[in-house]
Structures are given as structure tokens and as C-alpha cells.
Amino acid sequence: MPISDCDVRDPRIRRTRQLLQGALKQLMEKKGFDEVSVQDITEAATVNRATFYDHYTDKFALLDAMVGGGFHKLLHERAVRFDGSCPSAASAVILATCDYLTQMETGDGTCQRQSAFQPLVDAAITRAIGRVLSDGFAGSEDGLKGKPDGKIIAAAASWAIYGAVKEWFGSVNRVPAEEMVEMVLELVLPVLSARVGSSAVALSS
Amino acid sequence: MPISDCDVRDPRIRRTRQLLQGALKQLMEKKGFDEVSVQDITEAATVNRATFYDHYTDKFALLDAMVGGGFHKLLHERAVRFDGSCPSAASAVILATCDYLTQMETGDGTCQRQSAFQPLVDAAITRAIGRVLSDGFAGSEDGLKGKPDGKIIAAAASWAIYGAVKEWFGSVNRVPAEEMVEMVLELVLPVLSARVGSSAVALSS
DNA sequence: ATCCATAAACGACATTCGTCGTCTATATGA
DNA sequence: TCATATAGACGACGAATGTCGTTTATGGAT
Asked: Which nucleotide is closest to B60, CA to C1'?
């Protein structure tokens, strides 16, 4: 009984997925991700274990959906949109990334040092950032000679943003997020402007 | 019987790990990563299953070590070193990334569409790139006011490089690697130069 | 050549995983 | 309201996982 398509209109599907994601989120407040079994999740969600596999291939897929969905929701709540060029929209994306990582922080040091957890989170968030940026580069699909197209730029920029923010987040004595946003923006703006930029970027020291 | 420290000098340890990595690599030429069980690996490696867990917490950790080690080996073979500034060393890193992703390509469409595989690979390679770049920024640990320090820049740059190359690799009708290297270099150079760069980067169109 | 530390082999264990078929409950449209 | 399609519950299954404790074999140092 695999779920037919991706018919999110059916309230039963939404309900079950919400329950599963909620259960995982709740369980992760006390345990590490890989100490949580699918049984634990379905038990806490009052959902049959077999039903879990109707929705997600494994708990990694659930985590992915949860993180990606959560970050996307945050962007939506803040009405963040990237208009293709650069100005404050990029800042909003960067700040959202900082905030999301911060809000995801677990209580004490029982934190995540597992094998697959962090990479999954990284991938989910990076993908979400990439979508926002890609959407910004919508119409201008110009594949001009030698110029990187929008997809490459969006990929480079989104990964750069996340990499920088992750590094910031992992550092001791974190600088305030607003300050970090400025630094990252400074780093990433030239990347986002590369569609029209000159090839040799001369920087004054 | 967990392995004492990380005493790679003991030939027994090196032998076992090499066997395990070789077995996984070999098995992945025919099966997808998540279709390979730990049993399969240890069987092919003629290593006891319990011994596997003396070396790696799970097969994800093995994959991580394999990919990270492989990429690091490639860089070492090519004597790639990043001297802190920018010139052709960055190109070498980018090209190596292109080549490594290409060489990792599996035969046919039985490819990797699993949940945790790609993120793990991404993380391992990104980390390896980050190490090279970080090493380049060794001595100059200047935390000047408002300026991003070397770690942030290295993180942003390494993630940007990998994100761009990954996008390139996933695209249909791939442009030649050399051409890609140029594009990525153009995108990333301003990031790498940010330590001394001015805050407002004006680009002529 | 001998001794000691330690890696690897081995068997066994409870637990979890992923999948299956069947039956019940619920949503949607006529 | 009723019919139908489909999601969820349930029980069961073989396989894989992760962890033991014990025994054997190997490497390095004296």
C-alpha cells in the first residue's frame, strides 16, 4: 500500500506525516537521532510501523522532509523571496539560515555526533536555499558563452551561504547573527552578481 | 574490543580497513549503496562482521572514510596544495573535484537515489576541500574587526566549489571540466580574496 | 627467541528493519 | 446517502543490525 502519488490534499496523509514529524522532533529533544528507532517514532506518533514505510523509505527520509519542510516554512512565514538580483533578499535568506540552525539546537551536549545525521541536515537545508535562489534566477535562463548559468550560480551561492553559516554556528563564542549576515553577504554578493560580472575581479586592498 | 586509539601504524589495522573499503567499492560497482549490507561487505572482505564494528560505527562511516580518503589521496597524488592566496592552486582543487566526481560515476542507471548516500558523499568531499583551503589560510589567523576570518572564508569557498561542481556534474550535456573549472574559479576567487577585499564590491557590467 | 599488548575471529544474543497480505476506517464524488 | 477508492491498522516473516564475551593469532619490543 504505497501512497498513490503525492496527494497531499488527502487529510489523512497530512495528518499521518505531521504526526510522524512531530514525534521525531519531540523524541530528538531527549535522544540523539540515531538512538531513535522507527519503532519509537511510530509509537510516539500512534501510527503503525508499517504505515511509516508508506510515507518514508527510512528515518533519514523523514528527517530530510522535516528539516527541509521546516526551513521552507520559516522562509514562507517571513515572506522571503529572492527577486533575482541581490539586495536585502539575500540577507533575509542568510539570516533565516542562522536562525534555523540556532532554533534547531538541542538542549545539552547529548548532541549529534552521528554518522549520517549532520550530512542529511546539511543537504536538506542547502537544497531549500538552492530552491529559493534558483527561483530568483527564473526568467533569465541565458546560457551565454563561457558565463555560468543561473543554476550553477544558485548552487554555488546556496552552498557557500550554508557552509559559512554552519561554520559560524559551530564556532565557539558565536558572533551575533546580524554581524554574521553582513560578513556572509559580503562574501556571497560577488557570486550572485556573476551573471553580469567581468571575468577578472580586481579588488582593492 | 574497540580499536585502541587511531594507531594506523599497526599493519593489521591498515590491512583490515583497506579490505573493507575495497570490498565496498567493489560491491558498489554492481549494487546501490543501500542495497549493500554490512554482511556483504565483510563477506567480500573476508573479515568477520564483528570486526567491522571495531573500525566503523556503521556502513555510513565506512563510506565517509572511503570517499574522504579517496579524495584526499587524489589531491596528494597531484601534489595539490593551497598556498593561502589564490592563483592556480584553487584551479587544481576545483579540477580535482570534477575529476573525482566523474571517476566515482557508476556504470548504468542503477545509480544512487537513496536517502543517505549522496549527502554523505557531499559531506565527505566538502570536508576534504575545506581542509585543504583551511591549511592555506594557516598563519594569518587575523580576526580583524568585521572581517570574516579564514575559517569562514574557507568554509564558504569549499562549499561553493563543491556545490557548483555537483550541479555541473548533475547537469545533462556536461560542459568539459576545464571550462567548468574556469567558471567556478571566477565565481570563487572573490570569496577567497575577501580577507583583504573591500566591503562594497563594485562590478562593471 | 620470547613475551606482551592488542587486533581479529567466532558464536550468540536481543533488537530493529523492511516487506507482505489482509482487514478496517475514512475521504471524496456522484 | 451511498459507492468506491485509498489510507491506515495489524500480525507475521526473514533478514540485517549492533553488541557481547571468549579465544586465537599477529606485531613490536626487549
From this structure: D17
